[in-house]
Task: structure prediction
Amino acid sequence: MASTCEASAVHSSIAGVALKLFSADAQAAADPAVTKLISILLLCTSIFFVIALHYVNKEWKLGRDIKLSLEALFQRVPDISGSIDLPKVDGNDTKNGGTDNSKPQPLIDPANPSLVQCYSPSSLGNIGTVPNLSAKEVSEMALRSKNAQQVWKSTTFAQRRRVLRTLQKYVVSHVDEICQLCAKDSGKTQVDALLGEILTTCEKTRTLLHQGETWLERSPRQVNPMMMHKTAYVEYVPLGVLGIIAPWNYPFHNMLNHVLSGIFSGNGVVTKCSEHTSWSSMYFHNICRAALEENGFDPDLVQLCTGMADTGKALVECPHIDKIFFTGSPNVGRHVMKGAAPFLKPVVLELGGKDAMVFCDDVKLSEVIPWAMRGCFQNCGQNCCGVERLFVYESIAADFINGIKDKVSTLRQGCPLGDDVDCGAMVMDQQCDLIQALVDDAVARGATVHCGGKRNTTAAGQFYQPTLLSGVTSEMRIWKEEVFGPIMCVVVVPGDDDDVCVSMVNDCPFGLGSSVYSASKTRALAIGSQFNTGMFTANDFGVNYLIQSLPFGGVKESGFGRFAGPEGLRSCCLERSIVIDRIPGVKTTIPGAIDYPMNTTQGMGFGKGLVELFYGDTLWGKVKAILNLIRHG
Result:
């Protein structure tokens, strides 16, 4: 007689999965009773996990996630590695290849103004050239994107996800190569490239794959009692072709950031990359084109414009471009607005910041010092949401400076493709001159340089020493002007006063991000909620951007508009309001009282009846209104 504990095939299969997950010996489940127990435990654990996820995330949509999981499991995407020819960057290539120069060279060679010269900032070696495109060439590119978009706008979200998954697959399998290209072209360390280029781009892609379709679904809207026979909703329609003017601080992420959201929302995308990082941008652009082409779509949907300021100007003024997304300085942002104004072309401006990080008197210095280092020196300070003002409460300021001075002074600089380095090069040489002017002004007005404070001349490239500056006050230029370099500016908050701290933080023309560290989360949030910034984080730094469901952007000189999150994705679309009949056969007709030719007495009586019926606050008034409608209608 068969054992009553004999395990069914289902139990055996589930138990086998469990044993594989935990790398257990299959012999352990030889006993049917053990097999059944393991399978039941796994099922119960799975159910508990699903319920817990739903409890933690009220917005979670189980049906959507099952669909996306099945799509990822059974719809394999092509490997585009064979279609991309990335240049080989040798880890021992401390000169960064090309021809070495003793000083920065002009980007445009007067003998050949049709080309932009590309240099590595950490060696000043020439690494190639890219075209300096004319306005006519920009217009032709935009037209090609516009033509390709006519087909692309009708694709399904599943088809768009397939392109993004193809791109993601390539990025994940080529992390080292992409980081090395970023290091070579922008001078950043490879770890900074991994954190700021790869991680953010992969999370952007994952978020769009997971949430993008939901964010672009029809958004139902409530109707008023007068329109109860109608259904109203908002639909998000592709704008057409987006024009992107990208900065130089994160060449890989800035190349893909708006391309990802742009094509997922059904648009074509034309990007003007920075003239300072065009060399790597050309290769990164090819990844996007290959992902489209390998999936059967026209790669002309995405275009890359290289060149100088006139190329960017041509993109802004191009009639084939429907909206501009600009990331850069406030001064150039104003020029972008001026160029778009005659065409009434909408713009999104992300214009940098001067982010504050606050250390309250109740923090543990050993815990917050690493955050100060990361906030100020990541990407050599060339970070839109980098920490440019470090507010330290008076009672811990001296200990903080003593505790961090050695860490700043021992940061290693050099070519990021050679030995281990902590802080890379400055992308633009003139930025070193600006930083020096700001530091010199601060010192002249009473600030103290504890270490650094000048160019690093021991390396061949464009390096500025990591600097610790204290005694910074509001009379100094560095208090209000964006540094965009490796400078830690320490500001003492007198009397450990939270209100004074808020006032000091808000005394700034920028308003991008901010953070407060305190032993009390409630206190940190109470302080941060008073900051006039677009983003705030309690007891953390920079995670707003890693949570791609949040909109990214600021106020004041930091610009306006948002990218990332549903707000950013929908900003790539026309928000179109739709009203349709709710009940078949029931439709709106124009009552005779307000039809042409008009009878003023009847029209006014009928209209006042409507107003009283729907907006009056007494029952008797509504009864009279109904009678008026009957009488005048």
Summary: The first helix runs from residue 9 to 21. The chain has 21 helices and 20 strands.
